[in-house]
Amino acid sequence: MKKRILSGIQPTNQITLGNFLGAIKLFEQLQNEGELFIFVADLHALSSNNYEPKKMQENILNVLKVYYAAGLDFDTTKVFIQSKIPAHTEMFNALINFTTIGELSRMTQFKDKSSKFKMNNGTEKIPTGLLTYPVLMAGDILLYDATIIPVGIDQKQHVELTRDIAIRINNKFNTKIFEIPEPYFSKTGTKIYDLINPKIKMSKSNENTNGTIFINDDIQIIRKKIMSAMTDNLNSVNYDKENQPGISNLINIVCSINECDKDQIIMQFKDKNYKEFKTYVADVVCDFIHNLQTEIKKIDINNLLNKVEKNNQYCNEIANKKINEFYKLIGLK
Ligand code: AQP
């Protein structure tokens, strides 16, 4: 059997440049490396602080369009919608019993995202779905016997938890029902930071949207966001994440788009000021996003949705087979 590669993006808002460089670009590069399963993680999106029922279908379509514009071939790559495959929910429901509350509450992403649910009076109402998010993700992966999981570095801990759950179940039942997955990262875009606060991740749900570049942003807005990005007073283009996080982030963005070496950029801007450097970054990013937006405009939506529907059916067959096998193992069949 060809090795299987699987990943997904939540339709919580518009796709960001961080999502694109950390994950979607990798998906496209991996298309010939095995059987690729890429989904829209709409069940995951329910636990987001950004969750808006009325916008969900539009957001799902937007994620699909970005996948397509990024070059995913929907005939060979199985692009599907998570909630259309009921086995994801069934697997999640079974796997939560092989996971502890302790290990879930230690997840960094849970701690980070919990803070987004703080209310003005200091209290917080954190949805249980945020805590159990990694278990749903483990189910996504284990249902398809996927072994390569292309993600941004922030998801590393979740893939490690999936490994632990798979090994735990294999050992408990003395079987090899689950393959053991490995995370797979890009060389440069593993973590793109917010432009206004370069100490935090660029995210769809960051409060100040001036720090986030959305793929659907107007090109002039993107230029403005980059020109106003937080830098420092050293006025020297260097890669130093500790003392120059803003400049380092911009170097990383350019290198990730152009697939170039950081030293090359540092040399190129050795005697130049930040305005000249930012203008260059804005040119590179605007050009890149303009091309993506042009591809998005050309998409035949009906054709795209037909292909997704076929992929949903195909994925249902695979996932049902696995959940049945697992139900037998745990005595539900
Ligand atoms: N800033 C980032 N840099 C690199 N990779 C990133 N990813 C997300 N942000 C960055 C990667 O994108 C993939 C899909 O992410 P997701 O939408 O499923 O969830 P997320 O990580 O929670 O993304 P956001 O943008 O931060 O969304 P919200 O704000 O809704 O929670 C993952 O592989 C992730 O690593």
Q: Could you characterize the architecture of this molecule?
A:
The longest helix is centred in the last third of the chain and has 29 residues, at 301-329. α4 runs parallel beside α13 (301-329) and α9 runs antiparallel to α12 (274-297). The chain is built from 13 helices and five strands. The radius of gyration is 21 Å and the shape is globular. With 333 residues, it is mostly helical. The strands form two sheets. A three-stranded parallel β-sheet has the order 1-2-3. Strands 4-5 form a two-stranded parallel sheet. It has helices spanning 17-29, 42-45, 53-69, 87-95, 101-105, 108-114, 128-143, 156-172, 219-227, 245-258, 262-268, 274-297, 301-329; strands at 4-9, 35-40, 78-81, 148-150, 182-184. The two termini are 27 Å apart. The model has no long low-confidence stretch (mean pLDDT 95). Residues 9-10, 12, 16, 18-19, 22-23, 41, 48, 50, 151-152, 154-155, 189, 191-192, 201-205 line the site of adenosine-5'-tetraphosphate.
Record field, number of beta strands:
5
If strands are numbered along the chain, what order do they take across the biggest sheet?
1-2-3
Category by helix and strand content: mainly alpha
Which compounds are bound in this model? adenosine-5'-tetraphosphate
Radius of gyration: 21 Å
Query: What percent of residues are in strands?
Result: 5-15%
Order of helices and strands, N to C? EHEHHEHHHHEHEHHHHH
Please tell me the overall pLDDT: 95
Shape: globular
Distance between the termini: 27 Å
User: What count of helical segments does DSSP give?
Assistant: 13
* Helical residue percent band: 40-55%
Instruction: Please describe the biggest sheet, giving its number of strands, its sense, and whether it closes into a barrel.
Output: 3 strands, parallel
Low-pLDDT runs: none
